[in-house]
Structures are given as C-alpha cells and as structure tokens.
Amino acid sequence: MQILLVGAGLSGAVIGHKLAAAGHSCRVIDSRDHIGGNCYTSRDAETGVMMHVYGPHIFHTDDEEVWNYVNDFTEFLPFQNRVKTTAQGGVYSLPINLLTINQFFGKTLRPDEAREFIAAQADQTITDPQTFEEQALRFVGRDLYEAFFKGYTEKQWGCSPTELPASILKRLPVRFNYDDNYFFHRFQGMPRDGYTPMIEAILDHPNITVELSTPYTPDMASDVDHIFWSGPLDGFFGYELGRLGYRTLDFERFTHQGDYQGCAVMNYGDRDIPYTRITEHKHFSPWESHDASVCYREYSREAGPDDIPYYPIRMVKEKALLGDYVARAEATEGVTFVGRLGTYRYLDMDVTIREALDTAGVFLNLTASGRTTPAFVKPPL
Predict the structure, then answer these.
(1) Residue 257 and residue 180: Cα distance in Å, rounded?
(2) CA–CA gap between residue 344 and residue 357 (Å, rounded)
(3) pTM above 0.90?
(4) How far apart are CA 187 and CA 76, in angstroms?
(5) Closest alpha carbon to 374 in 343, 328, 334, 342
(6) Strands (E), 269-361
(7) Strand-strand pairing, 90-93 and 187-191
(8) 69-97 pLDDT per residue, tens
(9) Pairing relation of β-strands 2-6 and 25-29?
C-alpha cells in the first residue's frame, strides 16, 4: 500500500518504520526543514553543546518494550533529571521531598515526622478538591503551595490556579525521603548523540522516503491508500471550526563561560520573575565536557496562529471544540490521527512511541483482513 505520513517526528517515524518493514511504501513529509519534530537536537555551532532546540526532552519509561525499541536505534546513557527551584530567596530541590521540607521550614524531620507535619499544614476542610489550588492546599498546605506551585502555575498556564482542574496537580508527588530524581520510572536516559540521529535511524529504510520543507496539501490524498496525520487535529480541517487552544514557549538564548547554574533545570516559582525556568543544555549530556555553556530562559504564553503549539489547554471551551473536531475526523475516511497534536493530548515520548507502535499494529491487522483503520486508535476524549 501507498502510505502518507504527515510529520517526521516520533509518531510518523515509528509508524512509518513498522509499516515499511511490513512491505508498505511510506512517504514521510514535514513542513519544517528537519526531522524529529520538537525532539530535534543539534550541535550548537558556537559552543559545541548538544542543544534541545525546542526545549529539553528527557527519556523515561516503565515500558520495557519501548526502552528496548529506542535502544535498537541509538545508544542511551544514564541520565536522571534533578530539578531545582528558586523561590522566596532560596534554592530547593523538586519534586518536594524530605530535603525540601526540612530546608523550607528549617526543620530536621524524619520521614514519619514530616508526614505528620505536612498533614498538619494541609487544609483538611477541603474534602473534594475541584481546582488546582484546592488540590494543592489539601495536599501540601498554603506555604508550600505559594512557594512552589502558585506563581509557577500562573506563569505556565496564564491563568489563576483556581481556574485549572485538580487533575493537573495529581501528577506532582511529595516524597518523604531524600530522593530528588524528578521521574520515578525504571528506565531513564539520554541518547549519547541526541535524538536526531535516533530518528534518522528509525526512518532509514528502503521503503521510506522523507521530504522536508513540504507542507501537506489536500491533493496528496488522491495518491495514497491511507494517511497518518500527526499535525494539529484542527489544522487538518483548515481550522474551520476555530482553533484549539495551546500554550507556546518563547526561548531567550544566552551563553556563559563556565557553568551557569550547576544543574540542567532551574525553575523560578516567584510570580515577579517573568520566566518559568532556565535550562542549561550541556548538563543534559554530562558525559561531554564544554568550557562554554548555552542556556534558555523559557517564557510561556498563549499560542497564536504562527506559533509552535506545545501544551494543549484542554479546558471546558477547548474540550467542546475538540468534540466537534473528533466528530469531523471520525466521519473522514482514510485518515488516522496520531501523536500529541493529532489527538490534542500532552504525551511523553515513551507514550508517543507506544501509541505509534500500537497504531501501526492495528493498521496492519485490520488491513490484512480487509477492514479500515479508524480515525483514532487512541481517542482524544
């Protein structure tokens, strides 16, 4: 079959590789001039530092099959993300752990004492938290909430935490030990040479052709048997019903001779500091040595039509519009929507790869029995 994959990021590459290995002819196009989507990495010409051009991507998963899959295409080296935050005149480790608690409150609590202490800080009158703020107050109390969550969240999402659902905070743990590894998955690491060579290797198959700087046009559909679309869901329909809401990021790049901040990621929790964090990219490749350093200050704002969409907002208004686009997609034959943009969901890299492998498997099974693949293998709603 003739397959068109729109987007040369993880979704398009992984689906394309699996279908190409099964004998199908796969054409991968991307409107950008490089592969990899937002995972794209490249060597900084000035400093030699490996840059995560669209912000840091740290691979972490409990899915052993996915871990083995990516290691088939490149060498991953151990890396643990140890995030720090500057807040209220101090520097603390995240996620909130026993060291954070003891530092912040000037205590020397043991784990069981810290549990009791935080329980006493928590607002026990909130029995069914509905908003981000209520969840935080019920979870850690006002002092920790205002130091580490309130200002950062207002900057990241552009609204009050009282307007955000409680579910956002449920992803942020509190640890009553000194473990400051930001993630808790079994497998964590970084590709030695960046993500771009890994995705190049995935796309390196005789049944795959890759065309960059090539936007999709509707006439391309007439030449193929099926399309896998990893671009914006609303973009496939020309934004006819309106635009789904996203947050985007602006990066302010600066260089420094030496080590600027001593860690890869430094959050800034105070509201009066306009950026959410600074990332220092040479620390994402600790096996390398560089005299100079490249850093990004990150600023979050609402995405406009010409901006790169990063984080789907998925509030009530967006979910209503998403429902309309899902209905439109399900009535469209010959197209399957995949990935972060195609399903309007925030996805980590390992989940993106897992869903791409599963989607390719569903396609192969259904076509083998003469059936058609649905618009969504992983429904957005």
Answers:
(1) 27
(2) 18
(3) yes
(4) 10
(5) 334
(6) 277-280, 292-302, 311-312, 335-337
(7) unpaired
(8) 999 999 999 999 999 999 999 999 999 99
(9) parallel
Quickly count: other Cβ atoms within 10 Å of residue 188's Cβ: 19
Q: CA 34 to CA 196: how far, in whole Å?
A: 9
pLDDT (tens digit, 9 = 90+) per residue, 20-54? 999 999 999 999 999 999 999 999 999 999 999 99
Q: Which of 28, 21, 25, 35 is nearest to 2 (CA)?
A: 25
Which is it for strands 277-280 and 50-52: parallel, antiparallel or unpaired?
unpaired
| Residues in Cβ contact with 80 at an 8 Å cutoff, skipping those fewer than 6 apart | 181, 182, 183, 188
The DSSP string of 299-316 is EEEE--TTSPP-EE---H
What distance in Å separates the CA atoms of residue 168 and residue 364, rounded to the nearest whole number?
35
At 139 the pLDDT is 87
| Backbone angles phi and psi of 187, in degrees to 5 | -110, 120
Distance, in Å, from the CA atom of 358 to the CA atom of 225, rounded to the nearest integer, reads 19
CB 148 within 8 Å of CB 70: no
pLDDT of res. 246: 97
Catalytic residue annotation: 171, 175, 247, 277, 298, 346, 348
- Whether the Cβ atoms of residue 270 and residue 334 lie closer than 8 Å to each other: no
Low-confidence ranges of the chain (pLDDT < 50): none
Do residues 192 and 77 lie in contact, with contact meaning Cβ atoms separated by under 8 Å? yes
Q: What angle do CA 209, 9, 367 make, to 5 degrees?
A: 65
Neighbours of 48 (CB within 10 A): 15
Token duo for residue 281: 């990219």
Predicted local confidence at residue 243, as pLDDT: 97
Q: What does the alpha-carbon distance between residue 37 and residue 32 come to, in Å, rounded to a whole number?
A: 8
First-residue to last-residue Cα distance in the chain: 30
Structure tokens at 340: 């972060």
The answer to whether residues 78 and 185 touch, using CB atoms and an 8 Å cutoff, is no
User: For residue 74, what are its two tokens?
Assistant: 């490149």
Q: How, if at all, do strands 335-337 and 84-87 pair?
A: unpaired
Cα–Cα distance measured from residue 170 to residue 204, given in angstroms and rounded to the nearest whole number:
40
Place of tokens 């992984």: 14
CA distance 254 to 285: 18
Give the position of tokens 């208004």.
317
